[in-house]
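Standup notes
- HV: blocked on the assembly model, inputs below
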Amino acid sequence: MTTLLTNARLIDPEALTDTPGSLLIENGRIVATGDVATPEGAAVVDCGGRCLAPGIVDLGVKIGEPGERHKESFRSAGLAAAAGGVTTIIARPDTHPTIDTPETLEFVTRRAAEASPVRIRHMAALTKGREGREMTEIGFLLDAGAIAFTDCDHVATDTKVLSRALTYARSLGALVMGHPQEPGLSKGAATTSGKFASLRGLPGVSPMAERIGFDRDMGLVEMTGVKYHFDQITTARALPPLERAKRNGFDVTAGTSIHHLTLNEFDVGDYRTFFKVKPPLRSEDDRLATVEAVAAGVIDIISSMHTPQDEESKRLPYEDAAAGAVALETFLPAAMRLYHAGQLSLPQLFRAMALNPARRLGLPQGLLAAGAPADLVLFDPDTPFVLDRFKLRSKSKNTPFDGQRMEGRVLATWVAGKQVYNAEA
Amino acid sequence: MTFRARHLLGIEHLAPEEIRSVLDLAETYVDLNRRTVKHSDALAGMTQINMFFEASTRTQASFELAGKRLGADVMNMSVAHSSVKKGETLIDTALTLNAMHPDLLVVRHPASGAVDLLAQKVKCAVLNAGDGRHEHPTQALLDALTIRRAKGRIQRLTVAICGDIAHSRVARSNLILLGKMENRVRLIGPPTLMPSGVGELGCEVYEDMREGLKDADVVMMLRLQKERMDGGFIPSEREYYHRYGLDAEKLAHAKEDAIVMHPGPMNRGVEIDGELADDINRSVIQDQVEMGVAVRMACMDLLARNLRAERGRQAVGVMV
């Protein structure tokens, strides 16, 4: 099976180039890019001058299986991902029950493979039940296919337990993902403290809680030598120590969420709970600093932090409402805001959305080069539309972008050379 | 007279002329309330439901009396505290209420923004009687009326608000109202009870009470909740009284004719000296209670007028 995608803008996140050309797919892999002659018998797809990029590798997606299938299933998440240009989902283990044994991991791996049109890889919990008391069977879980270990938004308060788990993970070469947040300071917080939180009368957390959490975790990284990834860096204050840690040669990377790059605390307005995410949206200064850090490569990875919540969990007073937003389908259009604002180029965006997460996880995806898997997204960065949340494919419709003007639409998605989404179909 | 609002959810949504309209109308109700026959038919035939998700004696009584004096049928619904946190209850309560066709709904809720949420779901006029630490608009309006009657104006005054600003909806509503009416507002309190970023809201922040009270026309004391007294936010009750309790010595730093206010209920000997609170030359605390009934009557009257007008427009099929 040979397919030639012609007349495309090739977005290469490795070379950081954006050039016209063609791309040849054979047996699920990219075999050539650039000026490619049409081989005999190849199916030819004219991309109409639109952008062709490696499919998004989305690190940290919550799917409701097992336990909350009414919020999101592997099927609905997979369809939403395909429509959003996400070709690899890295699923979070914060399910019910937690993915903390090889048995539960095998269950989700099997279910995901049956149901999803895009690739799904699974992370496992670092501690049993994500409770921060006993480490999980990291070795068995690695054998069963765990791609990384994380307790998600549960921050271990017992530093001794955490240091042992990190030491053990280091001995097996496992990647650990942490949530930089000082748990005492951020307890009960629904917003970032400051003028807005004070006006609305909402409990806030100082942005310093992220920096303190970062510093503690960084100390443990220095102590144990573990491979560590900070899931979301969202404040300016955490950036200098992150830069310093990288300069000093520690094996650390950092991510941030698309919501923290495109929204700020004021978007919450009159208690709009769809804007409640974890950590809470930050000040405009923090947002801009975070965008700059992505452009400079200090923050490596942008994630959607897709977190489906049903209406019942959101139609509550702000403090009581659940945190999180669906984002698989709005990830790319939201990212285009940064492109249109001139803050990040398309290759820079795909470096953070595809190449860097794939590299960090040791996956062959994220490249637009011969030999890489043909996981691709074709999109038009300029198509304008107004987002209607009820048209989303996710079972939950909790997007902060409802009713907003967006630009950028996914036209087609391929996984291993097979088309899994076509906007015109 | 200008008052366009459909609900009274917060001072934030009111224009200065709307605030003035409420105060002017409330003056007429002050007179009415001092007569032997205290009755008006402004709300005759209308149903007012007081729904308090948080315990309250004074505010609820004030709203109840206000409604009754305007001729409304008043019902008090006390909602058990344990079911408050369940959000379904709030939305479902709204739906249940709709079926009862109330005209005015007075709501107090422990969560900030909960009254806004309820207002989106019901078909009547909603009055916020306090939501979390967000707003308590009728308190700010009754304070404004009290100040206007005592000082002859509600602008170009220096008003010091002292105490637990961080947890106080009264402070927020007053800060917004006094700012809108072009007064100078000072917030005084220990830094642990001061909300962050509040200095950017157009007021001055003081940690030293004597400094903050200097030349103030109005001194507004706030209640310190019992649960905040032991070590969490301040070291102790007695240290708080020493540094932030209002007594004659500290009050001497304010203007000679400065008035003393308190939204009640007072903790005598914690935030205010008992004798000072009773000093009829300085304290207007009893006036505040009286103005409370009048202001609430005015608010409900104005909202009822808008509600009638809106329903009238709907009945004749005019696009709103």
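- HV (later): unblocked. The longest strand of chain A covers residues 2-12. The first helix of chain A runs from residue 74 to 84.
- Next: hand off to the docking folks.
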